[in-house]
What does this fold into?
Amino acid sequence: MWTNWQKKVSPNATIPKRLLWDMDMTKFDFQKGKGIVAERVVERGDVEDFYTMFKVYGGVDNVREIYKNDVGHLSPRALAFICLAFNLKKEEMKCYIRRRSQAVPWNF
It folds into this structure.
């Protein structure tokens, strides 16, 4: 799915500010905040934002690991897309494991 992404990304591409509207971009650390960036790209970005993320984080395999280990929350729709796009199982992903381990309130 992500073949030839290097040819499709601009050499000076950066993560768009529109995805991180609530962050102070002068203080935002893209390495520490990689989970937030990945979450915003899949929830609110487009395909060019994925290509930019591949460039910023060192390729498809690195981004795959970010989605697997560093993203804290994804909607069910975004989770399904990431599993399909990166050949992951939802049971491998931190955001799915966290969601399943949350207590469910009792209904009386």
